[in-house]
Amino acid sequence: MITALSPLQVFADKSDDTLVAAFSRELTQLDYHYGTKTEFLILGDMIDSGLFYVKREDLSYAPDIASDFKIIDDKTIDINLRKNAKFHDGSEVTADDVVYTYNFIVKNEKNRRSKKIKGWMESIEKTGKHSIRFKSKYPYANLFNDLYRIKIRKNGIMGTEGNWNDSAQLNTLNGTGPYKVVSFDPGVEVVLERNEDYYGGPKGMPAIKNVIIRSIPDMGTQQAELMSGGIHWMYNVKKDIGEAMAKTGKADYQLGPSLRVGFLVLDAGGYSGEGNPITKLEVRRAMNHAINRDSIAKNLIGGPAKAVHTACNPVVFGCFQDVRKYEYNPEGAKKLLAKAGYPNGFDLDLWSYRDKEAAQAMAEDLGKVGIKVNLKHGKLSALNKARKNREIRAYFGTWGSTASPDTATISNIHWRDPAKGDRNLSGDPKVNELMLGAEKTLDIDKRKSLYAEGLKLIAEQAYWVPLWSYSEGVLSSKSINFKQDPDGYPRLWNITWK
Amino acid sequence: MLRFVAGRLIVVLSVGITLSIVTFFLLNYVIDPAQAIAGEEALFEEIEQIREQYGFDRSITVRYFEWVSGIFKGDLGVSYYWNKPVISLLIDRAPETITLALMSVSVTILIAIPLGILAALNPNSLIDRLALGIAVTAQAVPNFWLGLIMILIFALAIPIFPVSGDKTLFHFVLPSIVLGASSVPAVMRLMRTGLLDVINADFIRTARSSGFYGWRLIFNHALRNALLPVVSVLAVQLGNKFGGSVITESVFAINGLGRLALESILGADIPTVQILVFVFAIIFLFFNLMADILNAYLDPRLRL
Amino acid sequence: MIFKIFLKRLFPRSFDNDIYSLPPKDLIIRKSSNHAGFKFGLTLLLIIFLFAIFGPIILDVSPYEQDLTKRLLPPVWKDGGSWEYIFGTDGNGRDYFARILYGTRISLTIGFGAACVGMIIGVTLGVCAGYFGGWVDQIVSYLLTCQLALPGLLLAMTIVFLIGPSITVVIFVIGATHWAFFLVVSRSATQRIKNLDYVTAANAIGASKFQIITRDIIPNTVSQIIVIFTLEVGIAILNEASLSFLGVGIQPPTPSWGLLIAEGKEAIFFQPWLIILPGIALFILVVSINMMGDGLRDITDPNSKVSDK
Amino acid sequence: MNELLKIDNLNISFQSSGSDLKTLKDFSINLKERESLGIVGESGSGKTLSMLALTRLLPKQARITSGSIIFRNKILNNLLNKNFYKEISGNKISMIFQEPMTALNPVHTIGKQLLDTYLYHNDVSFEKGVLRALEILDAVQLSKNKQRMEQYPHQLSGGQRQRVMIALALINNPDLLIADEPTTALDVTVQKEIIQLISKLRETIGMALIFISHDLGVVSQISDNIIVMKDGEIVEKGSTSKVLNKPEHIYTQKLLNCLHKLENDQKKEKLKNSPIISARDISKVYKLPAKIFKKPEIIHAVKNVSFDVKTGETLAIVGESGSGKSTVAKIINGLIVKDNGEVKIKGQDVEDISLSRRAKLIQPVFQDPYSTLNPIHTIGYIISRPLVINDNLSNHNIKTKVIEILELVGLSEEYYNRFPNQLSGGQRQRVAIARAIILKPQILICDEPTSALDVTIQSQILDLLNDLKQKLKITIILISHDISVVKYFSDRIIVMYNGQIVETGNSEDIINNPKETYTKKLMSSVFSLKQKNQILRDNFT
User: Fold this and answer.
1) How far off is chain B from C162, nearest CA to CA, in Å?
2) What is the pLDDT of residues B13-23, one digit of tens each?
3) Residue closest to C157 by CA, chosen among A298, B262, A280
4) pLDDT tens-digit readout, A258-276
5) pLDDT given for residue C16 in this prediction
6) Residue D103 and residue B202: Cβ atoms within 8 Å?
């Protein structure tokens, strides 16, 4: 809201212990259970806690509201809760709250996460004031990730069965995280204050008292704000801008690793109709050979970004690397195309919605071997619709796997049974069987071997063109310490003043 | 008067209905609402479930009438994207856009009208050429470009104004200049040619033959006549600012209706977008009607 | 200038050798050759046209050829710039000069294409409404109100969503949302002309409605429509830039100026030439068109000045 | 009497592209107190310009190159603007103009405009100003003067507005009133009233008057002395009777000839032919759309009009503006669809006749020479178009025919490739007539064919029409407000008022023995050179 005319700008700063961070995409509500974007996860981790958490140091799962756990068998897990965890309203977190939260998620079909949890969860029961037991329908490999992503709600706060109130926590939030919400203006900013009663846990106690997260859609405006001292922190900053900004001496730039990978999804299964050259293996292999991954990763993205040959980021669990590798070889690509019956190449609509520079670079590379690309770069919803209507022969996708270092995160959605999702265009039931089968066991070696087999098959048949891993660029003002984590996920609560 | 307003209200209403049909059908055809609600990672069955749950499986005509009857009951629907009733979004965002619209029209008035008067009084002089230059420039510079350049100059190089945001009226100065500049050419040209026409009119010759001259002649006898069309154009411009603030609000991170519209479109949020299109249309029609009434009120020839 | 008309009325005979005794076309040519703004705008526009058509052929540069090792090189007048890339390179290592040069073609195509679409819609509707009046006029004004009331940018975004972006789509979307001026002007001109005696006379000599519209009415609205046309070309070019800026216009890698500005937007503080150069190109093109339009308005206005240099 | 105004060798030039064009040459007049001077000339003669120089209303590009203006022994040329406007303009010298519809500010009330002018020149209280305004409104014989003060110009009729203009000019009791064609835009009946009023007020206030007009008849009624101007020069100067009776300059003689010609009665034939057109009970209603504060208006342009036109005759329809005479003409021609009644041409309903046959039966000629020809077509194209549309002729034959017709209307072959803007008003009217007669129609409807033309041209066009009538044996319907033209030209007259026929009869009967009141009023408002000083007589009886 607008207040009076004040000619002097009052900047939040170290003096009043207030950090201002900027997001490009707007925060529309506070409850993580109703959002999917990375921004919601960052905010969720600041104001909420799940049973588990991904440690920044080694990307392993650590108990958060849980204090310890015990795997009883491959379908049963016992979890003890912290005794010192409290909601922002001061009440203690008990097993009742946890049971309520999971019941709410599973039984409230309107909730986005309902299906996912219901897919594996057989039951949750209270075994003591601070202990619970999960039973799953089958050995579920990605359990800890789900336990991390479900944030604990106070018993009864979301209504009761049959009378769920989905909007209860959208605009005010009674969470358990290191920060409390002071005020929230959707799409504009959220003002946070340190939760002095926070139990610490793997996130640790935050050093800065007040945090304001502003939504500033324009990256140029964000840079201007950073230079003029209006904000302290921004992310998703490209190499060139970050480096140039660092040169001015007004900000620090870090270009660190990210779990995000880029890839081309190819309609090998011929879902998009007749006469699709991509259904031919030689053509798909030719496309794999045609793109100069190394050059694009090094020159366009920079930092730790590298060419990737698997349908997952090499650093995550289960991402088997010893698969067929397609080196950059335009001549070979041309030969393969000729062999497939396209000596003069063909026309291809390539859809994309993100990373315009890389999409153009790729289109140019494909053009050099004869595949005349008509780039259809647009909004995600347009791509979603076209994909749903089976109009897409190839699209350029990326997957962030934010704070989930497991191949399951990317493979679960991309290799689904084609009857349940529209992204698996391989037309090969074997891929689905292998890649999703790996989620249904807790046996690490078995999972690894299933992924290995699946990833080898994907590479051999060139169902995708795996492209590269991304880097995450962050600009931070000179007055703060921000250290980038190996997964590129910004943990804002760890920022300290210099 | 009543008859006229009633007639115009019928036009407003029927145009509103037409536009609501067009936008409703267009949006529901372009965007799959079930997919939009379900999100990126949804399974097919989830999408189908949502489709049933929200009734998207019924024919689009049925849903349209449901939507319209909801509006008549005061229920504008709930945004999928913002998880809020659309009406509360409108209430939240309207003040910023109203402020921006009013301030930008003020900027237009402050620049265009004096410049137009000076240019008309000194045709082909330096000031006339300067005014024409400003008009041609303002016409040829895209809004988003001007916005970025303004930030570059007046927020960074010479830090007078804040870069972005909408906390205080001070935040609105740069965006108002950017948005207001786009109306300057039209208003200034109208002021100039209007005053030139008036100065050459027979009744000014009468006034001169009665002994009036100089500024007294202009202010007492010419200005009111020349301002009449300008006032109604300004009212129309004010109406345009509501729908036209999309880019400016996005560049300056002002949380108004324009930015809401942009974000809702990108977020495939059908309920918000269709209400916004409707609201922008009604605002435009309303200000047009106001312009006509104002003009008729100010111009005795249209009164009776 | 008005006084010439005044003079002409005062002394018809002493003006026998004056340009008023020239045929209309020669009169327009004479008037335009004396209008500095028009001449400037037209010359500039012609130069831009020549550049757009022949520049890429003669200079043999490609706007698409990328070299990722030569990204974001500065223009020649900056430190580190070279004559190889006069305007430097963009984020994909493509020659920025070539891209801006090709962008001229895009902008001109879209500007003139969209204005043509708008003109065909607007003039057809306007002439019909003006000539036939009655219920035709009412339906047309209803359509006009609908068009004016629709937030054009939002509509354009939605339609581009719907059909998918391409140059043709952008031309038709911009054209389909910009016919109001054409309609209003051609309608009022038609209403005025249809009551003039020569139209009544044409009716009296047995000319059909179609003949009257095509022979008597439309030719006499041409001068006003051309003025609107130039105005709309400028508006369409800016509109395309706005749409491309918002990401719903021309597709990359096609070098539209709006897209170039959008792509360079993030780098405004460090590689400002990425937005300043296409911004200036856009500015020069639109200014030249507008100056030509302003000139045309003066030239075709019967009360306009004649020979002042 | 003392000398009031003396203009000596006034020269005015227009600056154009570096060269100066002399537009007023050695203009000199002497005006005594209370004298009334008429200035007569056609458009472009410089008659208005000389007075604009006096009141400092010249266009920006016009410049006084030499000469002096002396008013009450004061040289006005060198007076500062400030002093001139404050002391002279609107105070000692006032001016009224031709167009009463636009000469008053539409957004201010009559009262405000009067008060502004009075209080600006006189240091008196507001109340006194109001009294003076009411007084002067009364003096210009504007009824309900208190109500008028609150009204806006658009609420008054043309004649009332001209009265307000006069009030505005006279509110400061000037010594000199300049009236620039003050009655030209008014209907003939109103015209007379205004001239009587000016004449009377001149007497009561005791001011001098300069009356500018193109109409020698009008000027002769009100002036003691007359100046005749042509091409920026004074060609004749003298007392009214001398100028009228013993003109020296050839131009004055020509001017008078034209007027006399119109006044001389022609031999009229009384035809007993069968009617070629019969109109029965024709009516036409126009609906004006609703405006913001106005209800939709319905105007009965023509109400139950019936008449016959006999083969070979010239029928005149006379009336003031708004009488419906032009609508009747267009209905007869089939150019407007009537609401009621029927029009038969040669026994066939005009609306059932095919376009092509109608074109060969009946053709119109219009008033305004500037809009009658499509500016983008050549004269050849315009005249040949009826042939192209209606006859199957070879291009060569068409061209031959067009050139024949051009010669018939008095234009040479060289006009064939010219454009309308290259022609004078009279020439354009000739082209319009050529277009109308090229299909050899049996009826020609001439709607005010000469009223936009200068007097000398006017008589040429009338002669041409007369000539064509003899040669081609066509029936002519003449629409006019000008009684002298009608009298000169027509066999029979229909008088229309407010959409209805008031009186019908042979032209001599109507002109000499009008029966209806309206017709009498119309006929008496004609200024004739023979009825000198009729107005002044009216004033004092």
Assistant:
1) 5
2) 888 888 888 88
3) B262
4) 989 999 999 999 898 888 8
5) 39
6) yes
ipTM of the complex: 0.82
Q: Using H for helix, E for strand and C for coil, what is the string for D45-86?
A: CCHHHHHHHHCCCCCCCEEEEEEEEEECCEECCCCCHHHHHH
- Mean pLDDT over residues A158-174, rounded? 87
Strand ranges across the sheet with A18-23 = A179-185, A189-194, A210-215, A18-23, A233-235, A464-477, A251-266, A394-399, A346-352, A371-377
Count, residues in chain C: 309
Residue B96 is which amino acid? Answer: E
Per-residue pLDDT tens digits for A409-420 = 889 889 988 888
A194-225: b (≥16 Cβ within 10 Å) or e = bbeebbebebeebebebbbbbbbbbbbbbbbb
Q: Across the interface, do C279 and B136 touch by the CB < 8 Å criterion?
A: no
The bridge status of strand D36-41 relative to strand D208-213 is: parallel
DSSP structure string for D453-493: S-HHHHHHHHHHHHHHHHHH--EEEEEES-HHHHHHH-SEE
> Which residue has 């003060």 as its token pair?
D149
Q: B15: which chain C residues are within 8 Å (Cβ-Cβ)?
A: 142, 145-146, 149
The CA distance from D300 to D285, in Å, is: 5
Picking from D378, D385, D16, the residue whose alpha carbon sits closest to that of residue C25 is D378
Q: Determine the average pLDDT of the residues in A465-469.
A: 94
For residue D73, report the phi and psi dihedrals to the nearest 5 degrees: 65, 15
**pTM (2 decimals)?**
0.84
The Cα–Cα gap between C213 and C219 comes to: 9
User: What's residue C6's pLDDT?
Assistant: 45
First to last CA, chain D: 27
The DSSP letter of residue A201 is: G
CB contact under 8 A, C2 and B200: yes
Q: What is the pLDDT of residue A1?
A: 40
CB contact (8 A) between residue B156 and residue C286: no
CB contacts < 8 A, A to C, total 83
A200: left (phi > 0), else alpha (psi -120 to 50), else beta? left
Residues 343-382 of A with CB under 8 A from B: 379-381
Nearest to C220 among D330, D356, D376 (CB): D376
Tens-place pLDDT, residues C24-66? 777 777 777 778 888 888 899 999 988 888 887 887 778 888 8
Residue appearing with tokens 């100059």 = B153
Residue in C150, C157, C161 nearest the CB of B19: C150
pLDDT tens, position by position, A149-160: 899 999 999 988
Which residues of chain C approach chain D closer than 8 Å at the C-beta?
1-4, 6-7, 9-14, 20-24, 27, 196-198, 200-208, 211, 215-216, 219-220, 307-309
| Neighbors of chain D with 3 or more C-beta pairs under 8 Å | B, C
Confidence at residue A8, expressed as pLDDT on a 0 to 100 scale:
38
For residue range D55-95, list pLDDT tens digits in order: 888 887 788 888 888 888 888 888 888 888 888 888 889 99
pLDDT value at position A181?
Answer: 94
Residue type, B123: P
* Residue D267 C-alpha, separation from nearest chain B C-alpha, in angstroms: 45
Look at A356-370, B29-43, B281-295, C272-286 and tell me which has the smallest mean pLDDT: B29-43
Higher pLDDT, D272 or B264: B264
* Cα R_g (chain D), whole angstroms: 26
The size of the C-D interface in CB pairs under 8 A is 108
Rounded CA-CA distance D250/D256 in Å is: 10
Which residue has better confidence, D110 or D217?
D110
Report the interhelical angle of C218-245 vs C96-132 (nearest 10°).
140
Cα angle, residue B277 at apex, residues B276 and B281 outer, rounded to 5°: 110
DSSP state, C94? B
